Amino acid sequence: MENSRRDFIKTSVLAAGALTFGLPGNANVPSEYPYVLADLPYAFNALEPYIDALTMEIHHDKHHKAYTDKFNAALEKFPDYQAKGIQNLFAQITQLPVELQTAVRNQGGGYWNHNFFWHMLSPEKTLPTEPLLTAINTTFGDMDKLKAAMAKAGLTVFGSGWVWLIENAQKELKIVTTANQNNPMMGDTADKGAPILGIDVWEHAYYLKYQNKRADYLDGIWNVINWKHASQLYF
Length: 235
Ligand code: MN
Known about the structure:
Number of strands: 3
Bound molecules: manganese (II) ion
CATH superfamily: Iron/manganese superoxide dismutase, C-terminal domain
Structural class: mainly alpha
Order of helices and strands: HHHHHHEEEHHH
């Protein structure tokens, strides 16, 4: 590999810094083109009654598949960017060709965010490890206050989007929201950081069971949070 290209890749990775990580717990999912829709790590009905089986099936097999297929279709037209890795595409989003920028934001975001979401959920009862629990208590007061603050933030998302618990560059925990399929790793996001938790508040994530009651969905989802996964992301 020529030096300039190697230097460029190294610089890109360093620029992404603490925001660079793959898909924890999901090593089989590629983080560069061609992207692949992995199976859920549990059955469609595993998160019942908090998230119903039909919602999970449509969410994964239709919505997540569409993001994956459309992201691949967009990247087919941009061979120079196929090997860049999704984290770098997020970090450098403002420098991409406009058509690709839109695809990375909407389809790439949808691909990554849903991979994250499936693994952030689990039917198994798990607890946060001591470092994460201590950070939550120090930052928010206690676990119930974190849940209340995330629910409040999730309810403020107008239309479609996500509510995240992130660890920012100052190593602080912070609750942030993003519109549509944007995420806190995108270079033009106001509050950047590495996701610890990310809750999908698009209506397709809850409408069949909860209809317009987003607050009830945001309350129920804590029963199926994979704290083991979250804890692995906090360091
Ligand atoms: Mn979704």
